[in-house]
Structure formats: structure tokens, C-alpha cells
Amino acid sequence: MAKSAFATVHRVLRDQSSENAVVFQGASSLSLDAKGRLSVPTRYRDVLSSTASGLLTITKHPHGCLMIFPRPEWERFRERIAALPMSAQWWKRIFLGNAMDVEMDATGRVLVSPELREAAAIAKETMLLGMGAYFELWDKATYDAQEADAMKGEMPDVFREFSF
Parallel, antiparallel, or unpaired: how do β-strands 24-31 and 125-132 relate? Predict the structure, then answer.
């Protein structure tokens, strides 16, 4: 049941992309400071300030990382999640119930709460990935291990007709 609910969530999110959205891409290896703050890379700060007034929302991702949304994109995501059927109730709890609103400070830092850091097993070293409309924040060692496993395996069927 959990897998089918996740498939429903994934399909809804994939099928409803927003027009004229900012696209974030690229990977950054970053360290959290002693207070658990993440310094947003300079290349994203201006666009996050202009499109989201520096307001972000951080929540859990089912793959063991965190998702970081600019607030306007979060609001669209939140509406779609909230509209899902009762069969996806636990996924609603995971995404919405764990969401934390944060604001970039004057130096471009955001506080990642202890609860969310613990949920993603993030201590200090991280990987921030631009994933289109949002970012993923991973514990660096976890990301490196999962990426290595993915690279060893076969590509998903969806890539069979894809040309590189």
C-alpha cells in the first residue's frame, strides 16, 4: 500500500509542472556550521531572494534526503499533496507534517532543524542538488554511496529510448 501511495504522489507531482518556473540544477558540496545552518550557494541566492523573498520550506523526502523549496513552489507542492486521497495520508504526513519554513539570513544561510537533520542523517558534510523546482539536501556519504550503487546498476526502462 505504501508503494502504491508513493506512486500516486510521484505521478501527481510529475504530471503537474508549473510554467515559467525557475529551474535549479547542479551539485554543491557544502558543510553545515555548528548551529546546523546551510550556506546557500551564491549562484542561487539572488534568484531565491527575488522569486521567494528568501523564504524556503524544508521537508523530508522518501529517499532519505531533504527537499528544499522556494516558498512559492512549496505552496504549489503543498496544495497538490493536500488534495491527494486518504490512501496517501501517511505520505501527506511525511511531506506536510515535517515541513519547516525557514528564511535566508543576510549572509544566505538557512537553519536546518535538528529534527530534519536527524531524519536525513545529516551531521556536517552535505550535497545540495538542484532538482528543477526544488533542491535535495543529502548527507554527503549517503549520497555518494547511493550514487555509486545507482551507477553500478542498470538504467531504468524509461531511458531505453533516451539518446545521450
Answer: antiparallel
Torsion of Cα atoms, 66 then 69 then 74 then 76, to 10°: -110
DSSP state of 104: -
Q: Is the pLDDT of residue 9 over 50?
A: no
The neighbour count for residue 83, using CB atoms within 10 Å, is 10
Q: What are the residues whose beta carbons fall under 8 Å from the beta carbon of 64, sequence distance 6 or more?
A: 120, 121, 138, 142, 146
The pLDDT tens digits of the residues spanning 54-94 come to 999 999 999 999 999 999 999 999 999 999 999 999 999 99
The enclosing H or E element of 7 equals helix 2-15
Q: How far apart are CA 5 and CA 86, in angstroms?
A: 9
Q: How many CB atoms lie within 10 A of CB 20?
A: 4
pTM: 0.84
Domains for the chain: give ranges and CATH numbers. Answer: 2-9+23-153 (3.40.1550.20)
